[in-house]
Write a structure and sequence with these properties.
The two termini are about 30 Å apart. By secondary structure, the protein is of the alpha/beta class. It has 2 domains: about 280 residues, Aldolase class I (TIM Barrel, Alpha-Beta Barrel); about 150 residues, Conserved carboxylase domain (Cyclin A, domain 1, Orthogonal Bundle). About 45% of the residues lie in helices and about 10% in strands. Helix 16 packs across helix 17 and helix 20 packs across helix 21. About 55% of the residues are buried. The protein binds cobalt (II) ion. Cobalt (II) ion (CO) binds next to loops.
């Protein structure tokens, strides 16, 4: 039996989950050669919220980070997390922007692309996967794990088959909320291995305390790789710690080998970094919280909810709003809760409680109902859909949503030129997503403004009493008839 391999997430998901994505390249570089020398099957270093954090908070060019890490850790494949057609943002981008991003990223040294879509609509992965294949890099198609009546093992396996047909080299099970039970992990891995035949990776979070046990079950079922981090950027809302995982596998025929002295060296090093990032860490992220299992709502979303409801003067409505979440999910076709759908479902649940159920429907929830984010896993509630169609004067979009978006690279390049910015692909693809921040990074001066990317053209907007400013930074702003919902974006990657 082959030993299981570990991918290490400390340089991406570890600090995204436990320290608000604030680890700087300078804080990463001393650890990179050690991580590189240990036999991890991959180092997750890029994508998710790291691009945003580099530009918005750290004043760093994310491509320079990648090049520096490649130089410091040349022997281990580097992994990025890509939100399919959303790239690393919250709205959809045209195919030419997605393809240019993947090409620029490949040229800068990225090896493995973990690609997912919030609705698990494989059409939203197609452009990214095809471009990764063209670049000769590794495409890992991700299945967003969630719990609902339509999310059966059979449905997930079918998704795996579809990802294989798309040309993916491997399949990832992406349990962003940390809710996969060990037995489910076992069955899902077994079936994916049997029916799809590609290598399978399990990625989970220890939010509810299930992470390490689910890894163990998946390893028994033949999973090829699991993803671990280095404490203290591990456990809680992060990935299980490597040392802890090795201890659980002691005596197991698939236990991999890691140098304990180097693991200890990393622990000591990252303890220090964790202290430096103390402003961004929180006991709420470090502990196991079984609330997630009761509500089937990601932990980060619950804690954000408490704050948002307080701001709306609705603190007494917490239980009511949380109970509304599954109803909203069901009405919108049992969509998984992951960036950006988690924010949208949460906001709509809040509006249902405040104004009465489906009395007001926020723009992004309307867009989900209309298929503009892709095909939902289950049927959209026909009454809700009829109401949205009537209010918007629009019909359901059945084609691939990105088909409706015109190519944008030429226009973006002209915008860059007009602003005196470089017009190379790296700059242009970053500008597409973070225009103000890129300008500030390159020209210097002032704090980056949190304004949305205007170039992320979504399909023609209907006349609505509601509008959103999705896209930039940590806020999703939803205006409803004078009421303003400033929703903190909890990134669940
Ligand atoms: Co994750």
């Amino acid at each position: 039996m082959q030993p299981v391999t570990f991918n290490n997430t400390v340089l991406r998901d570890g600090h995204q989950s436990l320290a608000a994505t604030r680890m700087s390249t300078a804080q990463m570089l001393p650890a990179a050669p050690i991580l590189d020398s240990m036999g991890f099957s991959g180092l997750e270093t890029w994508g998710g919220a790291t691009i945003d954090a580099c530009l918005r908070y750290l004043g760093e060019n994310p491509f320079e980070r990648l090049r520096a890490l490649k130089q410091a850790a040349p022997n281990t494949p580097q992994i990025m997390l890509l939100r399919g057609q959303n790239i690393v943002q919250y709205t959809s981008f045209p195919d030419d922007v997605v393809a240019a991003f993947v090409r620029a990223n490949s040229a800068a040294g990225q090896d493995i692309f973990r690609i997912f879509d919030a609705l698990n609509d494989v059409r939203n992965l197609a452009t990214a996967v095809t471009t990764v294949l063209d670049c000769g890099k590794h495409a890992r198609g991700e299945i967003c794990y969630t719990i609902s009546p339509v999310h059966t093992i059979e449905a997930f396996v079918q998704l795996g088959v579809d990802l294989q047909k798309l040309g993916c080299h491997s399949i990832g099970i992406k349990d962003m909320s940390g809710i996969i039970a060990p037995r489910v992990a076992y069955d899902l891995v077994k079936e994916l291995k049997r029916r799809v035949g590609l290598p399978v990776t399990l990625h989970t979070h220890d939010t509810a305390g299930l992470g390490a046990a689910s890894y163990l079950a998946a390893i028994d079922a033949g999973v090829d790789a699991v993803e671990t981090s280095i404490a203290p950027f591990a456990n809680g809302t992060g990935q299980p710690d490597t040392v802890r995982m090795l201890a659980m596998l002691k005596g197991h025929p698939r236990c991999p080998e890691f140098d304990p002295a180097k693991l200890q060296q990393l622990r000591v090093y990252f303890d220090d970094v964790y202290k430096q990032l103390g402003k961004f860490t929180s006991p709420a992220n470090e502990r196991v919280d079984s609330d997630i299992l009761i509500f089937q709502v990601p932990g980060g979303m619950l804690s954000n909810f408490r704050n948002q409801l307080a701001e709306q003067g609705m603190s007494d409505k917490f239980d009511e709003v949380v109970r509304e979440i599954p109803l909203v999910r069901e009405a919108l076709g049992w969509i998984p809760l992951v960036t950006p759908t988690s924010q949208i479902v949460g906001t709509q649940a809040m509006m249902n409680v405040k104004f009465g159920r489906w009395k007001m429907i926020c723009q992004p929830a309307q867009d989900i109902a209309l298929g503009k984010y892709g095909k939902a896993p289950g049927p959209v509630n026909p009454d809700v859909l009829a109401q949205v169609e009537k209010a918007s004067g629009q019909q359901v979009v059945t084609e691939r949503p990105a088909n409706l978006l015109a190519p944008a690279m030429d226009g973006l390049r002209q915008q860059c030129a007009a602003k005196g910015l470089p017009t190379d692909d790296e700059t242009v693809v970053l500008f597409a997503m973070f225009p103000q921040q890129v300008e500030v990074l390159i020209k210097g001066g002032g704090a980056p403004a949190a304004t949305p990317a205007t170039v992320a053209a979504s399909p023609a907007k209907p006349r609505q009493p509601a509008s959103t400013t999705a896209g930039a930074g940590k806020h999703l702003i939803i205006n409803v008839n004078g009421g303003r919902y400033d929703v903190t974006v909890e990134r669940l990657d």
